[in-house]
Amino acid sequence: MEERRKLHNLPILFLTNFDREVEINFSTSMLILVLQIEKQSNCQKETISANSKKIFYEMNDTIPC
Prior knowledge:
Largest sheet: 5 strands, antiparallel
Structural class: mainly beta
Mean pLDDT: 44
Number of helices: 0
Shape: globular
Helix content: under 10%
Strand order of the largest sheet: 1-2-3-4-5
């Protein structure tokens, strides 16, 4: 259902799937950011969650709907 590639032994771990969701995991002492970029299915803008803060993320390259 969901394919993800993991890059081990790196300070930053990128997980990607076909919904264009990107998770960037830093070391335990740093923040864990979950970036949900415009999904191909509905092309809606998503937000970046960093702790309790929400930051709007605008893509330079948009996906044609």
